[in-house]
Specification:
mainly beta; 6-stranded mixed β-sheet; 8 helices; disordered N terminus
Amino acid sequence: MVSLCLLVSPLQAQDLHITLLNGDCDGDNEVTLPDFGIVVSAMGSVPGDPNWDPRADLDGDGEVTLFDFGIVVRNFGQVGAEPFDPTLPRLPAPNEGYHVCGVIRLQEWYGGAVSIRLEAFREDAPEQIVYYADFSVEGEDFFSLYLPDAGLWRITAQIQPPNSGQFLAMSVPHYRQYSPGDSIRVLAVQPAGAELFSNLSGPIPIVIHVVDYDEVSITNADRDVRLTNKVRETMNHLDVHWRIRHGGGMIDDRPAFSRYLRYADYHPPALDPGEFSRTVQLECTVYDRSPIASRRDEPVSLTITLTILDVPTIHSIVGRGVSGGTTYPSLFASGLRREETVYYNWVVDAPATLPWYLRYVEWLQMPWRGRFRGEPPWRLFDTFPISPDEEHRRVVVEVRATFAFPYPDPWLGFQNTKTRSRAITFRLFTHDEMCDFSRGISSIAHWDPPNWFDARPGHWGAVIPRFNEMDPNLDGGYVVYYAPRPPSRPGTDITDTTVGILDWSGYWAPYGLQHSEQYRGRVYLFGSSLKARIESGGAVRRYGLWADGIDAVANTVAHELAERDLFLASWGGFDSAHIGSYLFHPFRRPYDEDMDGVCDSWEHLHRSLGFGKDDPYAVERWWLYGKDATGREVCTVLDHEMYAQLFGEWNGYLVGSLDEQDWSEGGRQDY
């Protein structure tokens, strides 16, 4: 296969598919007549036979058969990618840099692990260095590679040691263009306004919320734009710098432990004698340090104003959800079953330094009734149980603290009133009493789907386009279903990181109903993979579109439904009349259509003419194979993922467009 360039950031290069073509017996990186001769000479042999030649066992099954001969037939004339200049210096890929990940597949290989080396070379770099990493691949495996900077890279994969035969060297085309898009958004979470704080209570916590979306366009090899969308900048590339504009004191930037929230501690100054208050202005500036110059935003600054007093004040107001003795960081109105009890616990932190003391706390405004806990001055408040049907929204709590000074008049005191606004959210991966539990049924088991399947306002089921799409031909009606983890199915591209699939054949239908027509065409979302991507602080999504939370789910739903639309547009339906009666073949072996005992050029020519419902390989061939520039059928990376991209994967859905409706715990509203 000819060598092609790969444009990566490498943050832009995600979900790369590299297939090493089989058939090179003599190790010259091309499939020619000498390779035929090696296979023919060893035909029918197994280890120990006089004519056994391990080079001829192309599929690694321990014998030389017509299957090995067929591999040479199909790839005859193919030439591997040219290696990089061997005189260039070579360095191991760094362990820190920009992430490139994807899948390396060995075509028609059933043997043990094979050592594969990936090499990356950037021609326009000042220092021309080839970076490499070695991987052990057994049939098909994921790889992860780091490169030091952005630019136009060419990445090749080859078997180790070089020229040892069997698999041709391979490289992959990929092109992306970035622009800054929306400017960086910075919002003050705490303090939200001109609040009063005491200089007697220790550091004052400062919290800001930062989000940045850039624009990305994906082009083909001719640089025609195929897809445009938004991409979320990683927080590692957004630096926050603090400074004190007015009022003195000191500020420390705390390490971030949230995807979008940044924290700092402000240490207020001691006031001068006779000075009762001082206005302080703090400024944070967010800088875009993206390694891709074309996507860098201009710096954005935010000013936070507060007043420092020489008397005690309320330091903070914290609210937490509590259920079954477990405390959760967020307020949540749903996510547990109806028989479980959820209430909210509020705590007022109002320290007083001698001779001051906290006399009492008044709860002026509360979203729910409740009771005080502990002894006066009533700093703790527990609500009565909250209905799981509570609407998702922001609630306001208003509290007043009275501090007393014991002499000369014990009634002399100071009052401080503060409010806090908190979001009522839902918890992503717990269950909800209003879900349709039938949407968690497959051949593996029966599960209760998490509450993002809920269609109530605020839940993702009511926000994500087509999430609750119906198809009258499907049992249960719904198209989108749930499973907690990707099921194991050897010989497919389903792995433990797969977030969703289109089950076109009905393979995942309940036991006894597999491949039934009323189960063909379901879409399954896998909770464990989505959970890992969301809770790891976001994930680099397919094709370099970085999203999490509601975007990760919406992106997956839109993607799988785009595959479903493309399938229906091509085949007309999922029933046997449209796709034939052959649904799955465990081995992608050559099909002996004329029953002469060999897959020869007759079958290859006949199958290349088109797709038909009577061909046992028709659907799988359409789904997994493509054609080269001359129209000849080849095994390429044009699988269903690539088809979905080329035909408009997101159906107009933009990453970030649903954030303002994300009421999940950790979502855009939950700060």
